[in-house]
Specification:
The complex is a heterodimer of chains A (277) and B (294).
Chain A lengths: L1 H28 L2 H4 L14 H8 L3 H32 L5 H12 L7 H14 L8 H26 L2 H9 L4 H12 L1 H17 L2 H6 L9 H4 L11 H35 L1
Chain B lengths: L2 H33 L2 E2 L2 H5 L5 E2 L3 H7 L2 H33 L3 H16 L2 H11 L6 H6 L10 H29 L3 H9 L4 H29 L3 H6 L12 H11 L3 H28 L5
Antiparallel strand pairs in B: 1-2
The chains are: A mainly alpha (277), B mainly alpha (294).
Chain lengths: 277, 294
């Protein structure tokens, strides 16, 4: 009897927690007059795609969606490659400055990256003078900063996974005549895949959700904005286009949600692996 | 392989990572401190005026400014409310989750996963719409149409804090739930055999065993909630009317990019970094106590 009560309470709480997301999707499908009604109701009898059409045409949301995807995917790809190499170096080799590097890696994770907007803004400005694609107003600048922000944690996390692969395996591969390069990419890389999943999810979400750096770096090049900024196009004083905002929010949230759901088990085991390592 | 050869290969593997980290983290940190020591405004940026070295001038100006202290106080209070709220909600739901069957738990965890994965910008706009003065569902239910949650300073802070708690309690809940599940059943059985009440068991057995985890999630929450930017910026439209909803992070941004006081903005950034590094030191000590090794 008491367990039923607790379960009912849990269900009510789950409904409250999920309600904002339900409201977002619902409002995205509501017709205009139901959205700006002074008596909003939690259902709709006339679902429509108008808001999505408006978001995709008026604000050119498709373009921004693509920009966000490009930045996030390049960040994920590069951070996997670079952090895998670095983690291998830090676990498989013994060299003098190894401990110093590890401690620096830990400390650097604690620096609030938000505080670095001013120097990074000027850095990107001067980078843009010689390599425009990586300067202000270009997606390259966002790739660079998010890559830098996601690397320390990615390396730190992968370390545990690389360490878990027995050294004997490498010896066996060498005896079988595999080169160092082949061992690295054809044996070690697939074996640390669960760790790569966890690190890439975090890197993806970091880049996908970023608002501050997109706002700081992409000043005048409207065509290079990312989703978080594009959403602000519909926010106007006193006459927000809520339908389009909710449609845009839905488009922005769904990929992350799917990503999260697909990898949640791997993510948890990945995080557990990092703690254990 | 010889020791020297090992070192050389390791260095080759590390080079890309070191280049990125040195160029895009270490160098900007150095630049942050440097810029904070100069009078660096729009004229200096465009080359119209020479750079003047101020030493600690920006810091003096900051510490003598009443607004800085107000913003600092607001940041600490806001972070404190968010941290306490996140921990209470997360802990309460973690305990509830241990007392229900799997289907109810899965439902709760799925809902939490949704809140967790919502991007901050999208989450902020959804909450703004839910609490909109005229078209918001919450005002409709409460029967207070026309009441603006974001106009008054304190209701605005409250709304942002509620949003922050909504998207950050899942982490605490999942971590604490895993911690509770990891406590060996024999320990709790032994307590029950010795005649301990449920409350006594929770207070004297479960809580002490969970202390390391609680400490880690607390400090992690402090670090996150201390540097909230997106929610404040989006929900209060850049820090509220006349900047009364500013926190340090948004304040630094506004000083640097809205007022073109880059030196001052950098100085606020330094202050924030130092405060967070102090918190981090406690974090590392907590980690070491909970048995994690480098």
């Amino acid at each position: 009897m008491r367990r039923w009560l607790t379960e009912a309470l849990v269900l009510v709480i789950a409904a409250v927690v999920a309600f904002p997301l339900f409201w977002m999707v619902l409002s995205a499908f509501k017709p205009e007059d139901e959205i700006i009604s002074v008596d909003p109701v939690p259902w709709t009898t006339r679902p429509t795609l108008d808001s999505f059409t408006r978001a995709l045409t008026v604000a050119n949301f498709g373009r921004y969606f693509l920009n966000s995807v490009i930045v996030a995917l390049i960040v994920v790809g590069l951070s996997i490659l670079i952090s895998f190499l670095a983690a291998t170096a830090l676990t498989r080799f013994r060299f003098r400055s190894r401990t110093t590097l590890l401690i620096m890696l830990l400390v650097v994770q604690m620096v609030p990256v938000e505080a670095l907007t001013v120097p990074l803004f000027f850095l990107m400005r001067s980078v843009g003078d010689s390599v425009p694609a990586f300067g202000l107003n270009h997606l390259g600048s966002l790739v660079l900063v998010h890559l830098a922000f996601s690397l320390p944690f990615a390396i730190w996390m992968l370390r545990g996974f690389v360490a878990a692969v027995p050294v004997e395996l490498e010896e066996a591969a060498t005896l079988d005549g595999a080169s160092r390069f082949r061992f690295l990419w054809q044996v070690l890389f697939p074996l640390v895949a669960p760790g790569l999943v966890a690190t890439s999810v975090l890197a993806f979400i970091h880049a996908w959700n970023d608002f501050l750096f997109a706002k700081t770096f992409i000043i005048s090049a409207v065509e290079n904005q990312t989703l978080p900024l594009a959403l602000q196009v519909f926010v106007k004083p006193d006459q927000n286009d809520w339908g389009a905002i909710m449609a845009g929010s839905t488009l922005m949230t769904i990929p992350v949600l799917i990503f999260f759901l697909l990898v949640q088990r791997r993510l948890v085991s990945g995080l557990a692996g990092a703690v254990k390592g | 392989m010889t020791a020297k050869g090992q070192g050389r290969t390791a260095f080759a593997y590390l080079t890309p990572a070191l280049l990125v980290l040195a160029g895009l983290l270490a160098y900007p940190i150095y630049q942050l401190v440097l810029i904070s020591l100069y009078d660096y405004g729009q004229e200096q940026v465009s080359g119209g005026a020479p750079l003047t070295f101020l030493g600690l001038g920006n810091y003096q100006k900051l510490l003598g400014d009443q607004q800085f202290w107000t913003v600092l106080g607001q940041t600490v209070a806001f972070a404190a409310v968010c941290v306490v709220g996140t921990l209470l909600v997360g802990a309460f739901l973690a305990i509830l989750a241990t007392r229900v069957r799997a289907w109810a738990r899965t439902t709760l965890f799925l809902a939490a996963l949704g809140a967790w994965s919502t991007p901050a910008v999208a989450g902020s706009t959804i909450w703004l719409f839910l609490f909109d003065a005229n078209f918001g569902f919450v005002n409709e239910v409460l029967g207070i149409q026309g009441f603006s949650w974001t106009f008054d300073k304190w209701t605005a802070f409250g709304l942002v804090a509620a949003q922050v708690i909504w998207c950050s309690f899942p982490f605490v809940m999942v971590t604490l739930y895993a911690g509770i599940k990891a406590i060996p059943g024999e320990v709790l059985e032994a307590a029950a055999l010795d005649g301990a009440s449920a409350f006594r068991t929770a207070w004297s057995v479960t809580l002490p065993l969970l202390r390391p985890i609680i400490l880690v999630v607390t400090i992690q929450s402090i670090i996150w909630d201390f540097k909230v930017f997106t929610q404040i910026y989006v929900m209060t439209n850049g820090g509220g009317i006349a900047g009364r909803n500013l926190v340090l992070n948004v304040y630094a941004y506004q000083q640097a990019f809205a007022a073109s006081e880059y030196g001052l903005g950098a100085a606020i950034g330094v202050v924030m970094t130092v405060l967070l590094l102090v918190i981090t030191l406690f974090y590392l000590r907590a980690l070491r106590r909970s048995g994690e090794v480098l």
